[in-house]
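Sample entry as discussed:
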Amino acid sequence: MLLVRYGGDTVGQLDLRKGRLVFHYLRDWLQRPTAFPLSTRLPLSDDELPSDEVLAFFANLLPEGPVLDTLCRLRRLPRANVYRLLEAFGRECAGAFEIVPEEEAVLPREGSYRPYLMEDVRRDLKALHDNIPLLQLHGQLRLSMAGAQNKIPVRYDNGEFSLPMGGAPSTHILKPALQPEQLYPDSVYNEAFCLRLAQSVGLPVAPVEIIHAPDPVLLVRRFDRIVEEGSIQRLHQLDFCQLAGVLPGQKYEVDGGPGLGDLFALVDAHSVLPARDRLQLVDWTLFNYLIGNADAHAKNMAMLFAPDGRLRLAPAYDLLSTAYWPALADKLAMAIGGERRPAWLMGRHWQRMCDAVGLNFTQLRRRAMGLLNAIDQQMPNVANDLSLSEHSRLLGHFQELIHTRGGWLRERMYQVDP
């Protein structure tokens, strides 16, 4: 049996029964006035919760894709057994909860940190070339990072790294270059540029910086962790696959996952400030289109629990220009007005999107023009902050792409045909 814990309290029990995940909340947790549910789809209840909803919530805490494949092969774990994977990786997950084997819960809870020196980082980066995931190199710590990219949670304090042990929370995520680098050149600077640019034009984003070890590595501050009086607190979050109740393999709209209409509907249903969050979602959609991010799927947006138990849209993360790598498909992960091909997006498609999600098209057009003007003003400053040469290939890509797509917006949003 696995225990789901929040701080020092046990929230509920997770078990595997005849191949199905079974979860129920503990009565002690239910009786707490501050109790909150794992998910909007797993409400506080004395009853055993539906196994399909339980599976969707917990599966979305795990790594995906080639990273998960390699971890399973190296540790001889069954890829489809979410229970076993949580047992192996569930101690430091996204959000507020940690997942602990029952036998570990009787031990004193003494979270601590192991120094993670720069020479350790350099050694781990070399191992990536042998296709060894960072989580595997420190597997005894039982760390988990949802998503398909290679990364590891760390504590970062006064310029020093450490790795969380025994349930201690992390503060940052360390993301090395995408592998193989010859297929995805400049990925660290690509993501840093996109996130810094988004921040400079007013989008809430996860703060980032680049660490040189000596190869560049992206350091992302976690928005689901806060530091208060020297103590690190976990905040609960749900990505939009968890909110929609779908498995990580369905994160793309074409695979049955949420589309933009679903995201707006979920914000309307759960946000404590739906009007503000709708505008943030509009800006996120426009910004991803302009930077050429075709991989903006449902797991790349999340909501955070507010103190009153309702949700608010989390800062943006995983922003990068997939268009920089021509081998990747350019079709959008989420269709805009039924169209996924960026070059084919016309004013009527933006109008259809507005009609579908209850947006005012004139307001959308105004925000698009304002965002474009802000990007034009801020792009040189962001490039300078990252020490990107005016002749760099990456900066040239962004200048050309945003000029092209911005031109399409400026022209086509004023030509709305039936």
Summary: Residues 140-145 have pLDDT under 50 and may be disordered. Residues 361-385 form the longest helix (25 residues). The first strand starts at residue 2 and ends at 6.
